[in-house]
Write a structure and sequence with these properties.
With 52 residues, the protein is mainly alpha-helical. The protein contains one helix and no strands. The protein is elongated, with a radius of gyration of 27 Å.
């Protein structure tokens, strides 16, 4: 009976700790945007076949 109480207490604690989250829902600041290519610049697409 004592093992059952211990097991049920552990399950309850795991359930409670899974429902509580610490931290904020806000995302961090975004980094700077990368360099932009010139309009109409030629792009090269390289296709690599999968390894066998």
């Amino acid at each position: 009976m004592q093992k059952f109480r211990l097991l049920s207490a552990i399950i309850v604690l795991i359930g409670i700790s899974g429902c509580i989250t610490f931290g904020s829902g806000k995302s961090g600041p975004e980094g700077p945007q990368g360099p932009q290519g010139e309009p109409g610049a030629k792009e090269t697409i390289i296709v690599v076949p999968p390894a066998k």
